[in-house]
């Protein structure tokens, strides 16, 4: 059996996901149900961490692509990146999203982005870049598991995988390397936008899930007697 | 288009056909909004020329860029542009981006992959370590791999022409080739490097036995390790008995290589090292190669060999210091530790044996544990032979002998000064005797230490000079070198004693000076030798610096400017032994300051605090000559007077004998003579005093005082009160006598009393006489009042009275005043007294001073 570095990272990501879900298993959850608040907070924290991690990774990868992709004001047409899930949405629409839809969109977006990212990893030629991408993929896998945990805590079902998209699916070879580079650029950019949006989403959810002060008081009184 | 035949098995058959003729093809015009750049993702070698073609469609205003630089093209048609790039460089593995934009909006782009030129593998060679595998290695040069779909890294193929086998190499710098069991003797390898653009090959042909690179020897052991020899064994792995190996053995000590040996072996090797040093750590290195054809040596293998100890091989270098004290010799032995070369192991202890040469039997044994370098012995003043040996775990060194004779330590040799240099001291001496074993020069290296760190140098018997040098020598430190001659009996005799400095410095301190014999015109400065450590050179003399108010210096001194810009008169003393200096020609009662500095060849000691001296007054000594004898004389006289006072008193003021205490009384009582008795004054009838009335103005003179009275002075009556002691007042009477002769109203002796005394001052009212002043006043008043009762100028009297109290036995008791009035007895008898007793009784003004009498211990009336 040929074990490659990418597979090892995948196994590690699975392990992380399983560990992440362990608190949700009723038989193991002996401390009582603290509600979805802590999970949302952790998801929010993970989102901010991934934002920071991506900033470093994108700098390296865009230099590897070369100019004009590493120029700060570069904004190419999406062309082949139309299949990437878009993070930008109208503000009113975003506000009107319910929790389930908000979480579902996040989950679906990161599921797709993770698949694209793994394809990116296979193209990277330098070991250092491959290592950075693999590390980021693992973290992103953790974020996906974290969102799944929040959804489970809120009683929302996980969205079904889209037909034809396998977990290791990657976009097919573009008709030119230049267009491939543009797709890579948009992948990183969209990922950055999604992380920014997710931070807003989970912050909104976090505030929404905070128990009212009266309920806290009642809870304390119950403990007191 | 062209075709190529390329088969690694038949490289000689490789060839390429010619290019086919050009064919013209008409391309379709792109759709309205479709751009097209061609070729797409082109791969070229570094330095190539590339032409890009761009079909802009309907867009006219296009701009094309290479990475971020605008490139200018040639417009072939309305919508077709060509861009020619010459000598393209390699920029990055990700390729160079070429793209076209309209109004800064990218319409299309392509990636130009520029590959580095594939290099020919360098240093291609093959070798075997075990006759099973040939390991071929090379230097691949640059990696021509490109990212994306540009080009993978070049790959390598190994082809052996004799066997016709080919192998794709997994690594880009080495490849392993299995050796067939029949041990093919000769190999011809072709290594081919290949990428998308180029193929490069190198070839090597060799005999297998010439490419043997043995592995490093292992199982290295040292057996039978002694003090000077040891056996080493080792094995050669994996080569079997296919070839003979040559092994190279090197033996290093800490400093350099000592031995080198070559040994031929098959599989197991053995070598005997000899002539080794005892107790020494050696580094043994071994490597092997094929004996028939040395292709490559194996790696060096290093092991440490430590030889066993042996007994020390050299006698200790021993010296001594002898200090005679109270009939004993305190001997301090010093020795230099043996070098590692001579110690032959770790020195554990030193044995000292002292043998009395006179008695020849007594042995004193001491064992000093290492790492000592000396010990102390106390011996009597006989001759002793001392033997010192160093001992390690194996045995003792040869004994080092030294003899302490009875005269050791008592030698006195005059010190001689020598001049040293920075390189040391050249010391020479004259031999004492013809028969000598050598010389020893010793000195203390660190003089500042309380315990001298004795150093010594052995000099041969035929040498009379040597140079003593040491890194420890410092300028300004006095070193003392003693040269001993060693007799053949190992007795050391002091030959010479030399002192010197490597470099003299100016003294760091000045002598402590005292000013003595200070007179009005001179004083003397005196000082002593001071610490040689502060001298820092041989003192050549002194400078006396004298500050005074005088502006001019004497002829024997020169003005010297001091650091504080004041001046002093400096007197030079060029004799270092002179330690006294007379400063003269000074002004009396003047203030002087002086400072004495010493100087060496390097300069003067620093100026310190000046000492202040004030010369004496010119006449003070005369006063001393007069006053002192006078005081002594007065004291002498006073002592004499006190001593002879009793004698004077007896001569001039003898005690009035008391008849009641006279010795005659006992005589009377013993004889019981009825005719002999003491006359009682009461029984006596007072003498009749003749009173001569004189006319007014006649001078009256007291006999006692012999002082004439003027007419205005009235003679005062001798109205005396004798005050009884307190003891006698009760019940004893207070004795008072009155010369009733003076009273105009004379009364008889039995009834009259106090007649001349006024009523206000009764004679026995002693309260008023409690103090001498009161007494005196009272007496004078009484006296004056009495005078009032006598007509002035009418009476003149010559009389002397004497009283002896019948009860008075204690003379001192008269001084005690009693506040109780007592009865008084009267004295009616008077008698003349010698004239010599008059003067104390009378005061100068002619009054009779009772105070004088009362103030003395004895009463004379």
From TrEMBL, chain A:
InterPro entries: 4_helix_cytokine-like_core, PRF/CT. One of its GO terms (molecular function) is cytokine activity. Keywords: Cytokine, Glycoprotein, Secreted, Signal. The keyword Transport does not apply. Residues 1-27 form the signal peptide. SUPFAM superfamilies: 4-helical cytokines (SSF47266). GO terms for cellular component: CNTFR-CLCF1 complex; CRLF-CLCF1 complex; extracellular space. It is found in: Secreted. GO terms for biological process: cell surface receptor signaling pathway via JAK-STAT; positive regulation of B cell proliferation. In complex with CRLF1, forms a heterodimeric neurotropic cytokine that plays a crucial role during neuronal development. Also stimulates B-cells. Binds to and activates the ILST/gp130 receptor. Belongs to the IL-6 superfamily. Forms a heteromeric complex with cardiotrophin-like cytokine CRLF1/CLF-1; the CRLF1-CLCF1 complex is a ligand for the ciliary neurotrophic factor receptor/CNTFR. The CRLF1-CLCF1 heterodimer binds SORL1 (via N-terminal ectodomain); within this complex, the interaction is mediated predominantly by the CRLF1 moiety. The tripartite signaling complex formed by CRLF1, CLCF1 and CNTFR also binds SORL1. This is Cardiotrophin-like cytokine factor 1. The gene is Clcf1.
Automatic annotation (TrEMBL), chain B:
Keywords: Disulfide bond, Glycoprotein, Membrane, Receptor, Repeat, Signal, Transmembrane, Transmembrane helix. It is found in: Membrane. GO terms for molecular function: cytokine receptor activity. It is a single-pass type I membrane protein. It holds the Pfam family LIFR_D4. InterPro entries: FN3_dom, FN3_sf, Hematopoietin_rcpt_Gp130_CS, Ig-like_fold, LIF-R-like_Ig-like, Type1_Cytokine_Rcpt_Type2. The chain crosses the membrane at residues 622-643. Coiled coil: none annotated. It comes from the Eukaryota. Residues 216-310, 314-411, 507-618 form the Fibronectin type-III domain. SMART domains: FN3. One of its GO terms (cellular component) is plasma membrane. Belongs to the type I cytokine receptor family. Type 2 subfamily. This is Oncostatin-M-specific receptor subunit beta isoform X2.
